[in-house]
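Q: I'm writing up a methods section and want to include an example of the input and output format. Could you take the sequence below and give the corresponding predicted C-alpha cells, formatted cleanly so I can copy it straight into the document?
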Amino acid sequence: MQRFTISLDDALAQQFDAFIAEQGYDNRSEAVRDLIRSRLGSASLGPADGPAKAAGARRARGEAPWCVASVSYVYDHHEQTVTARVLDLQHDHHDLVITSLHTHLDHDHCLETVVLRGPTPAVQACAQQLIALRGVRHGNIHLVPLGAAGRAHAHGGHAHTHFRPLN
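A: Here is the clean output for your methods example:
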C-alpha cells in the first residue's frame, strides 16, 4: 500500500470531515479511496447529464419519495469482520433489502449486489452505509426514483401501491 500526503485549506478540511461523519466512514483514508475509485470508475462515462442528472434533480426537489437501488461492492471474504458487518447491516435493514447476489470473483474476493427498495432517504442511507463499511471496496450505488403508478388497491385483502420508475 502506498501513502501520500495532501494539503487542504481549513474550510475544505472541515467540509471533508463533515462528509466523512455524514457518510459513516471510519477515517479519511477510506473516504479518499472511495472518492478516487468513484472518479476513476466514472471517468469513462463523460459528463453527468441525461437521465442520471435528471433523476438526481428529482430527488433533490423531493419529487421521488420512493426508489429502488442496486448497490454493488467488492470485499475480501477472508476478512471475517467485513463479512459480518455486511451481513449485519443487511439484516438490520431487512425491510429495505429485496435480494442480494453473491459472486465469487477469485479465491479471495467477492462481488455482492444488493437490491434495495423503500423510502428514498432510507435507501440512500443504507446504500451509503454498505459501501462505506471498512473493508468494502469498489462500491457503487445506482438509484432509480419511483413514482406511484396509481391509487392503492387490494388483492386478496392485501392493500398496496404499485411504483414505476420516473422518466
